[in-house]
Amino acid sequence: MEAKFGKFLQAEYISARVSYKAAGLSDDDLSRPIVGIANSFNEMTPGHINLRQIAQQVKYGVYRAGGTAVEFGTIACCDGIASGHCGNNYVLPSREIIADSVEIQARAHQLDALVLIASCDKIVPAMLMAAARLDIPCIFINGGCMLSGAPFADNVKTDATFPIEAMGMLQKGELSMADIDRLTDICAPSGGSGQFYGTANTMCCLAEALGLCLPNVSTIPFGYSERLRAAVKTGESIVNLAKCGINSRQILTKQALENAIIFMLASGGSTNVVIHLCALAHELGIAADWVLNTFEEYGERIPYLAKIYPASREFDMEDFYRAGGVYAVLRELRAVLHLEALTVSGLSLGENIQHHRSSYAANPELIRSLDRPHSRLPGIVIMRGNLAPDSGVAKPAAIAPEVRQFSGTARCFDSEEECVQAVREQRIQAGDVLVVRYEGPKGGPGMREMFAAMKMLKGQGLDKCTALITDGRFSGTNNGCFIGHISPEAAEGGPIALVRDGDIINIDILNRRVDVQLGESQLEERRATWQYQPKRLNGYLERYARAVSSAAKGAVLE
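Structure (tokenized):
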């Protein structure tokens, strides 16, 4: 053991030993596995405000198991706070900064193992990407989902995004600003990563489905004592992984990625999971096309089993936890999973499923069996067509059956702001297909999130008679008919840039197609006169726009 973990006691590491001792560690500390605690705690992000306490519990576990914990921090942007003008441009680009910083800190300080602590949209995938790069023992733990908001209007529960939907009701004269002010007081009663199956909670569940998070942990709500106990166990487990020599790439395999994709198809996570899985695959040397093709292949045979808000107004993430969480869904899918896949528990996925127990009663209306799914259509689908030659992504789980096949008239907007203004001024009519472009990874830059327009359309009662397509992305909280991640994006001359007001757009979720009713010769005619002037940028976004790849490739930096 000392030969492996006692390197800082050896002469060639004398400088590092001096520095560690100057930071308060002893020779005994340095003889143990040095476990980095990558903590994205801050006082601005509701999903991260409890991570200081989580980190402390993790440290207890590390010490109990015979390791030495050393903590460092990362940035953590909140999509909810950043969703205002230009702020949202930074959220996806922050993923690369976080992944880089974790990699740098772990390698520069020669850490033996790593605990990754995060909860929100781009921070979690960044941590997973860093784990893939480092190939040392790694384990993930999050801070938990938010508790349900109080009833409001006709809703039994509310959530942190409901005030944006209520703005649509305000615009229709159905609510007052005082109503919305009251709603902001009651819709988010605790910290946590939202009450809904948005990107944050999707990515936390993904980590568990991948095997990089202990079973039954990712869905424990904020404030539950189970989460504190799980944090201690996480600390103990990382030391055991280090002693056994189980590294991240032994867990993050193609089989693990397939398991995660199958889980996402069955549970209907955020569309953003596709871009992040493409980025994670890139770190593992796996082509993004393999990820898209795997979604398509399994999407033909994996039905939709777990109905969580926004697909359901009745069941939120706390309900999902009480229904058995990730492993309750995996148990239903075990016939199609790679059960031999290794996990951070030290056991295989199949063994974890066999040992899985929930302290709460099963909920067969939230999590259904393979022979009684909510829908034969999977929760997420990859879209193709003359508007999305490289791909687009839709979420049938949140699209009402009556608009899964929709034809309408294009209303084109060259920015999110233009689109939101049109919705706010009630200039959108039934039968419109909103085309929001130049908001992709390069054009935004940063692939901005279009959830505000969709939420207001729902509040105005237009979610089942309009559609929105974009080269940007969506929050996992959206309902309505929507397709995001359209690639190539407008800034790269993708067909979405050639659409004009009045064009007829056909959306067919059932057959995974999105097309504009134009022939190839008409599109080429328009391309001949198309011009694009990139936005004037500086700082990180200027460098990001130059280097970022397509959404279909995970929006990684090239």
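The mean pLDDT is 95. Residues 225-244 form the longest helix (20 residues).
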